[in-house]
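AscB structure dump, as promised
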Amino acid sequence: MAQFPDGFLWGGATAANQYEGAWNVDGKGVSTADMLTGGDVDHPRHFTKTLEPNTYYPSHTGSDFYHHWEEDLDYLHQMGFKTYRLSIAWTRIFPNGDDAEPNRKGLAFYKKIFERCQEYGIEPLVTISHYEAPYHLTEAYGGWQDRRVIGFFVNYAQTLFREYRGLVHYWLTFNEINMLQSPFGAYMAGALPLADGAPLSAPVGVQAGGNQLQAQYQALHNQFVASAQAVQIGHAVDPDNMIGCMIAAGVDYPLTAKPEDTFKADMSNNMRNYFCGDVQVRGEYPAFAKRFFDENNIQLDITDADRQTLALGTVDFYSFSYYSSGVQTTTNEGEAAEANQTKTNKNPYLKYNDWGWAMDPLGLRITLDRIYGRYNIPLMVVENGLGAFDKVEADGSINDDYRIAYLQGHIAAMGDAIADGVDLIGYTTWGCIDLASAGTGQMDKRYGFVYVNRNDKQEGDYSRHPKKSFYWYKKVIASNGADLSND
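structure tokens r here:
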């Protein structure tokens, strides 16, 4: 395995709506995430048009980072983090999204965080929009399917670039932007309207004359334009800014040697890794998009100005999440599976976690090699981790060797990809401090190096306790990835 390059950005990642809490404090407005209940594998999260009494809304409390930020940043400093990926809550800056002026208390909160990060030598990696938007934009405009939302986002992004100039140098415009291609992402990522009581995967409200897929892909196109405009503004405000895309990436394998299975797997990989990647890295839609649009009766509103904006607003690096791999088949063989909101088939050669996600480190190397081979720009793995039920022992220790084993394999795979020639510049594990799951809303689905004393029953005082993996990851960072041993 090759050595990781000098200056490699080791760290971890969180999202405001899963971690921050304080959902209605200091002028913060109501976000789309604030209207989603908790759930679990058997009971999906659902949307409520009004807040229901005695119902758990994970974003309302999260891990209460808003009141524990100093302690949490100190933990990251103790581990030796080089970067910390976090998102800004749009509604903490512009409560309704279309406000004329930003909320100064919200701006001041994040400024404190970024200043402390700089004191610790931690580079903030900031996601501008991570699975939330002002709920007012859903009610008043139908979410991202309305072009007017582009301007509201660009104003928001420009405010951040100006306010945090010199404090933040690494930015991501939209989290897992390609999830808008899925039913899960229509509301979660696109802020498209849901019926009262509907689960996240339910059909969303569409504008007159449209269909479900058209609404999703028009919303996605509008985000592409907004992202490209933001990239141009971010570079103009500070030429040192590095602005990337963020994709929910991975690899699907064919179940059999049947050519049709290989073709289906290839098309799945194209739609997942390259559809959005081509627009944001190359500045234009991929060739295979036209047939997809034609076959699904999708007629997007794309202007000549849009095309020019996309061409001029390409990103500086490609970042992505990777948790597991999938299997595709055109036969009736195999066992159905679902991981990270993606329906595939079960791989008989891999082990699975408690949520049915395949653990496949080699798949990460394959994904890195393929993406770099297509784009030849710097890459970052900005989400990777193992969700698990952690047990607190009688002495207070948390021996999460299963998490260490998962991360060992994936870090080794990244080293192999670097040896393959991939320009990998950073790695941020998901949920470095425990937070609520986006998919199920559970607190008990834990990813972190630091345990947060809070559970699905809303019990616990939010106190923090390092796990065994905390000390292991500290050693990994100190050795720049050379020492992965668990002893």
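The chain has 15 helices and 16 strands.
lmk if u need the other ones
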